[in-house]
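Whiteboard transcription, Tuesday session. T.W. wrote the structure tokens on the left side:
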């Protein structure tokens, strides 16, 4: 496993992190095995959100962690707030503070290493968010702050109200969801490019030392399914097979290695709850794809180049 700083912070986390969005329906024994496998493979960063499993994911995780008895300072905990089922979004100070208290209670911890705003609240007031973040920082409940699914304009506005850095922006990114990188190629052409929503994000984040955390590294579309061994993507699977053979690895490992190869130093948040696959994902930091291999995979996935 290799490690990286998350943004301008002292969080030195595994480049492959475990997302717990899918842990709520696991038994206690399964949860213990999942987390132990990840930790033993070098994964020391765990990504939550208050809405995962309606709060149950954090509960299942905390119970498993208690049994594993890993000292709190040996791993990083991140959670997210701001999505309010039944309403939509809520970035009010009151909601942020209340949500963090509830998260800490469920996770049975005194502090989060990082807190992300989950998805932009249309009615947001950055001054109010700044007040909430300041309170959470001062009372020691949250060490560092970040966002998720935000554009550079939103980030720039939020940053202008804060006295401390935003360290991460969690965004969907994978071989099959590569708009963030593909849009750069289409600048000033008259070609139709579906990646309009991602224009400029990656460059802004790199310039401002904000770590991209890639979510759903194995999904295509919006949770439509997994692209590995999927008959819909024969060319991609053939190419992954071919390169995997060369490295004596698996398509799963390679798909994470493809994300990690980008020089933006992207951290990958995997969501598999299968111990064997967790180990495969963790091995991805040992493979450094060549420029040619990276582009071959990109093209085999149906991404265009000019
Ligand atoms: N910020 C946001 O808006 C946002 C949105 C979504 C997710 N997230 C975060 O990102 C994390 C990952 O999301 P995700 O779970 O959608 O990501 P993912 O890693 O792309 O998908 C994992 C799912 O794919 C299945 N899968 C099947 N074949 C697989 C293979 N060969 N390799 C890997 N997985 C395979 C897994 O099943 P098995 O368990 O059986 O392996 C699991 O159900 C979440 O846990 C969450 O922390 C954030």
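and on the right, the sequence the group agreed on:
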């Amino acid at each position: 496993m290799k490690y990286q700083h998350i943004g301008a912070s002292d969080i030195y986390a595994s480049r492959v992190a475990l997302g717990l969005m899918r842990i709520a329906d696991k038994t206690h024994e399964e949860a213990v095995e999942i987390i132990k496998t990840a930790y033993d493979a070098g994964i020391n960063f765990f990504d939550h959100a208050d809405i995962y499993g309606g709060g149950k994911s954090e509960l299942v995780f905390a119970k498993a962690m208690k049994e594993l008895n890993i000292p709190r300072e040996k791993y990083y905990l991140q959670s997210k707030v701001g999505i309010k089922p039944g309403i939509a979004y809520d970035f009010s100070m009151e909601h942020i503070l209340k949500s963090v208290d509830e998260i800490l209670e469920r996770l049975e911890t005194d502090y989060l290493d990082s807190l992300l705003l989950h998805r932009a609240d249309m009615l947001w007031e950055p001054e109010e968010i700044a007040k909430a973040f300041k309170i959470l920082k001062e009372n020691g409940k949250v060490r560092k702050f970040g966002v998720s699914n935000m554009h550079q304009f939103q980030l720039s506005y939020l940053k202008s109200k804060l006295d401390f850095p935003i360290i991460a922006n969690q965004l969907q990114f994978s071989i099959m969801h590569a708009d963030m990188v593909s849009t750069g190629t289409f600048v000033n052409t008259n070609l139709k490019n579906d990646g309009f929503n991602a224009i400029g994000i990656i460059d802004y984040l790199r310039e401002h030392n904000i770590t991209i955390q890639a979510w759903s590294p194995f999904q295509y579309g919006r949770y439509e399914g997994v692209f590995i061994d999927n008959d819909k993507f024969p060319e991609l699977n053939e190419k992954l097979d071919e390169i995997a053979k060369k490295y004596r690895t698996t398509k799963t490992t390679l798909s994470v290695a493809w994300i990690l190869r980008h020089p933006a130093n992207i951290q990958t948040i995997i969501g598999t709850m299968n111990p064997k696959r967790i180990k495969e994902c963790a091995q991805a930091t040992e493979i450094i794809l060549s420029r040619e291999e990276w582009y071959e995979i990109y093209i085999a996935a149906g991404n265009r180049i000019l």
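Someone added at the bottom: The pocket of NAP is lined by residues 19-22, 47, 119, 148-149, 170, 215-219, 226, 228, 252, 269-274, 277 (CB under 6 Å).
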